[in-house]
Amino acid sequence: MGLISFENGVFLLDTDATSYRMLINEHGHLEHIYYGARIAGCSLEALRYKRTIGRGSQVLTCPEDKTYCLDDVPLEWSGIGRGDYRNSPAEILMPDGSFTCDFAYESHAIRSGAVAPDGLPGAYGSGAETLVITLKERASEVRLRLYYTIYPETNVITRRTVLQNGGDGELMIRKLMSMMIDLPEREYVLTSFDGDWISEAQRHDRPVQYGIYVNESTTGASSNRHNAGILLSEKYASEDGGLVFGFNLIYSGNHHSAVEKAPNGMVRVMNGISPHCFMYRLKPGEEFETPEAVLSCSSGGFNGLSSNFHRFVNEHIVRGDWKGKERPVLINSWEACFFQYRQGKLLRLARRAKKLGVELFVLDDGWFGARNSDTAGLGDYEVNRKKLQSGLVGFSKKLGDMGLKFGLWFEPEAVNPDSRLYREHPEYAIKLPNREPALGRNQLVLDLCNPAVRDYIVDNVSKILDEANVAYVKWDMNRHLSDMYSPFCSNGEFFHRYTLGLYEILDRIFSPRPHILLEGCSSGGNRFDLGMLCFCQQIWASDNTDPIERLKIQRGLSYLYPLSTMGAHVSQAPHQQTLRNTPLATRFNVAAFGCLGYELDLRELTRQERRDVARQIEFYKRYRRVFQFGSFYRFDGTRDNACCFEAANGTVAVAALFQTLADAAPPNDILPVKGLDAEAVYRVWTREQRVYIGRFGSLIRHLIPLRLKADGWILRLLNRNYTLKDGEQRLEARGDQLMGGLRLNRQYIGTGYDKELRLWSDFGSHMYIFEKEVNGA
């Protein structure tokens, strides 16, 4: 039996660890039966929702069956006007002028592999199988095709909907979800990942109560306000136990997820394109296709669900030459230079970076046109020769001669009014004919619904990529959409057609150039979604590089996306976003759980700091595959002011414990550990990190016999050239013992210094390596 089978009117869909069951019921509706841990077969008597007697106020969908009301049936799809008063997955103005529709089973087919969407990105890969169920509207020639694709090894099912107008009249679509499912009520907790600029993906939990909760973006992109991914968990689910469902969407535009607890003991979940300002006219003979929804579940808690999503993204979403390939360590010029640089300054930064072990130099904003601030130049592609005397081609060659790859920043979707492009083609920008357009970051957005605009972007970006031997692109977009209007589509289609235009541009540029590593960015994580990951192998998680804030951001994203997709940089402290001053070691320890980069002026580092950065990069390269593609674990039960991450691959595990604000006389810490071989012996040690003398200030008087000023030249000199060992710990132990929790050396408690003491204070951290001994070695 394959992944999908059909027996006695029941569809059976099975992944390695989960099962999904649905029934063509006696009235032709597609009834949901079960979704959860894997089961054998399907006992309808045990699993089917019972309709023993009707309720007093029910509207009978089929008058001959006194117990059958759609409002009381768990469904895979529902309509309007036939007795189901729960949230509807569709609002379609039918040819008869009403919204009433009733879709019933007509046929089905089982196909090998995934069936690619038309014009939209989707999941792909071997080992998949697809079920296509066709539903027909009872009173018209309108049909729905529901696609279910099984990816067995990742325990993921994708779903999407195609609406076909087979009649003579037009349909007006006001809402059409990608999927809908009715689950039995289990006192669920709904988890969403919300935020803002520099505060993305903050986890928020709330109990699912009666009514409808909506998680939605209306900014024109998937947005930093509400990520498209949501989780639904049993009340007492933890990181490692309990049933957890996950729902996401392969889409980068306005999205909509809704969770409704109904009075009948069911919870309805749906997701798809946001109905905000959406009206799509479907002519006779046409089809409308929704983005692909992604579903998974795990009885192994949040970590179990995340493991499913991580493997799915790495295997079935990310593509190109960088699929499964270790990402390079980069330096980005932005925080070191901003807009103010010349070629010589950039090359000096590159030479310093190369000496420290950096592999890729990324030239950020400011290289084109009159781009000396964010007020001018966007939309133009002429290289500013005052800044780059050798041009991009010559500059790239100079980097190559150093042994560095060349990366380049673009913001192709935007235009400054003060630009050559806008002066020559003001019609390329999105704006209403009778209104003054609203600016965001001194810029307008280009109309990607316009074929000429798409050609302009593709031609200019492609030319630069080929001529300058660009190995990496950072694709930025720094504002939300406004003044939604295009002469190339109706207003109700604008948001969706903009997104389709973006996908066409990305496909035309990067599909012929699979060797380029593409990092998405939108003022940080404003467009961190599965749609972009079909083109971008990684996404800049946030403009906030403060590691204490990044702990929350990267943790939130990790519920839905693997570490291989998260851009994470070490920056200068105090941090631009918070003015918080954090240790260099902690900045690295957080950024290592992602795709590592540096974004600071290397001239300002002391000799000891440069040594530390070189050691950090050397360490990261050694364990890069574990960080980027290993199994990632979060932990319950750490102190309120602590957080623990771990990445492991069976042979090696790297765990880090982070502290936010220090307590006086802190308790002894126990480091939780997972993913080890219980019977193997592991060598365990701390990553070497150092404490700078300046950290002690005037307290240094207690360690040396001399009376020195805390801000005097002697201590400043010592701070630049001398450091102390911090928290060294080495041991050997069996995996089963270590997974009981590693007892750590003590923190500083105000009584002195020892090289094994963890000198943490606020924002301290350590990283611990567990290497499996092979053949007693």
What can you tell me about this protein's structure?
This protein has 777 residues and is α+β, with helices and mostly antiparallel strands. It contains 14 helices and 40 strands. Strands 6, 7, 8, 9, 11, 12, 14, 15, 19 and 20 form a ten-stranded antiparallel β-sheet that branches. An eight-stranded parallel barrel has the order 21-22-23-26-27-28-29-30, surrounded by five helices. Strand 26 (472-475), helix 8 (494-510) and strand 27 form a beta-alpha-beta unit. It is globular. The mean pLDDT is 95.
Shape: globular
Alpha-beta classification: alpha+beta
The percent of residues in helical segments reads: 10-25%
Rg from Cα: 28 Å
Low-confidence spans: pLDDT under 50, at least 5 residues? none
Residue-averaged pLDDT: 95
Number of strands: 40
Q: Mind summarizing the main beta sheet?
A: 10 strands, antiparallel
Span from first to last CA? 45 Å
Number of helical regions: 14
Strand fraction band? Answer: 25-35%
Which key features would you list for this structure?
777 residues; alpha+beta; 8-stranded parallel beta barrel; 14 helices
What would a concise description of this structure say?
By secondary structure, the chain is an alpha+beta fold. The protein is 19% helix and 29% strand.
Secondary structure topology:
Elements: E1 4-7, E2 10-14, E3 18-24, E4 30-37, H1 44-47, E5 90-93, E6 103-112, E7 129-137, E8 142-151, E9 156-165, E10 171-184, E11 189-194, E12 202-207, E13 211-216, E14 230-233, E15 244-250, E16 255-261, E17 266-273, E18 280-282, E19 287-289, E20 292-298, H2 301-316, E21 330-332, H3 334-337, H4 343-356, E22 360-363, H5 391-402, E23 405-410, E24 414-415, H6 420-424, E25 444-445, H7 451-467, E26 472-475, H8 494-510, E27 517-520, H9 530-533, E28 538-540, H10 547-558, E29 566-571, H11 584-591, E30 595-599, H12 607-629, E31 631-634, E32 642-648, E33 652-659, E34 670-671, E35 681-686, E36 690-692, H13 713-721, E37 723-725, E38 730-734, H14 735-738, E39 742-743, E40 765-772
Parallel strand pairs: 21-22, 21-30, 22-23, 23-26, 26-27, 27-28, 28-29, 29-30
Antiparallel strand pairs: 1-2, 2-3, 3-4, 5-10, 6-7, 7-8, 8-9, 9-19, 9-20, 10-17, 10-18, 11-12, 11-14, 13-16, 14-15, 15-20, 16-17, 24-25, 31-32, 32-33, 33-40, 34-39, 35-38, 35-40, 36-37
